[in-house]
Amino acid sequence: MFKKPEPKCEGCESPCFQDNLLLKAISAEVRERIYPHLKLTELPLGDVLYESGDVMESVYFPTNSIVSMLYVMEDGRSAEISVVGNEGIVGIALFMGGLSTPSRAIVQSAGQAYRLDSKHLKAEFSRHGELHHLLLRYTQALITQMAQTAACNRHHSIDQQLCRWLLLSMDRLKGDQLDMTQELIANMLGVRREGVTEAASKLQSAGIIQYQRGHIRVLDRPELERRCCECYAVVKKESDRLFEAFSYLPEGGSFHS
Amino acid sequence: MFKKPEPKCEGCESPCFQDNLLLKAISAEVRERIYPHLKLTELPLGDVLYESGDVMESVYFPTNSIVSMLYVMEDGRSAEISVVGNEGIVGIALFMGGLSTPSRAIVQSAGQAYRLDSKHLKAEFSRHGELHHLLLRYTQALITQMAQTAACNRHHSIDQQLCRWLLLSMDRLKGDQLDMTQELIANMLGVRREGVTEAASKLQSAGIIQYQRGHIRVLDRPELERRCCECYAVVKKESDRLFEAFSYLPEGGSFHS
DNA sequence: GCTCGTCTGTGCGCTGGCGAACAAACATAT
DNA sequence: ATATGTTTGTTCGCCAGCGCACAGACGAGC
What we know:
Chain A has helices at about 20-25, 30-35, 90-95, 120-125, 130-155, 160-170, 180-190, 195-205, 220-225, 230-250; strands at about 40-45, 50, 60, 65-70, 80-85, 105-110, 110-115, 175-180, 210, 215-220. Chain A is α+β, with helices and mostly antiparallel strands.
């Protein structure tokens, strides 16, 4: 969309603000205000960005990393609520006015993200301009994802859910690889590790994925989609619908007609 | 909070705008703009306010009714995503910028609601004032409820979930009564009717509830809370935290410090 | 009264996922 | 090469919830 030369982050050639779709979608005007405050940050696997109830100091725009919102129950069992990759932002409670959420944000796939201090985000959000609309619309997409997760948890088998989870993850990464142990996947899905082992070995023997000791590779994505429940497609379609507006957005324009 | 005389809805004495907490929380200034456009509407049991994908024509502020957001899957199985009563608004997608959601809004408990045409809500929302903040914060509370639902679906028994569901419903109604068949409850929870029958009869024989042919009455609420999973309390607590700000809100003030 | 439709109770057999316990394969550091 | 810790594979008994089928119980209407 934006052909003008972009500010490069000092020192690194390849990572760029444009790697995050939200950052990419904003106009030059907003960009000039926001970009100087963005700090490229390494997110190591398993890093906890927010603990349940923490007041958020900053928000994160992932580029090649993935962050999971995980709800951890009193007895230690957990369930993934939503996933955020380069299409989104971690820390929506900040601008929604709650400052914290009762869930944990944990790095599911190591990589980088742009960190923005909460006061800068709030300042820009309070201008009620482009970014404001953008973030609200993104939040709506996230809500859809959460709703679908709730329904999927209720009705679908581990086999199907693993497919959904893999697809969600692959969409947020460049290649066809993913570093993740079955134990961790089980935590995300809120199921037993053995259940994941079984589902994964089915997929492997069918030649759809290939894995060993925490490295997963998708070989046959179409087949993965075929074995998946409807949940993945519904969320994808709805996200596409909501994000479509981003590219049509005139500079400084408004979503509300 | 607001001691000034309130405009009464024409003809009816008891129902009043103040019966909805969001409508109650807004200042006199906003009230004057909004109130003239509110239309008191009867919501019969089972009425569908929005079907999945529908563009929303108006939003609803329930007073003594309850509306469920229900996700219906391709095979007809369903799951309740969230519940809205007199503490909230039905149709958040409208102001979030999505215009529709892939879920169904269905009247779970008959009663009344104030209907507001979408253009009026949008207009007021676009002023980026009080109502704007209020609605965003409410949305955050709703997100919490959805997240908890997802986790609850994953880990808790029908017995526990029924307790949660009853408590959520009772909170949104005046008395201790609820008109609802076990069949419908099963749809909401996304479980078998027989499962609900079993769970309900346990509660009845323990003297906690009493029911017959679609009429449920809670006799021992504390015990209901004791048998419930943590999910109810977590959502309640978080809602209280978020709503607390409403009462402190100075007229025309802002949430963002 | 009686009938019919709705709502609730109960009893099958089945299965997906759980919990626990243990074995095998592999990676890395020493 | 060996040892150690991590990751994955396998088994077994168990149970919550499912799907199905049917029986009673109640209420509204004729």
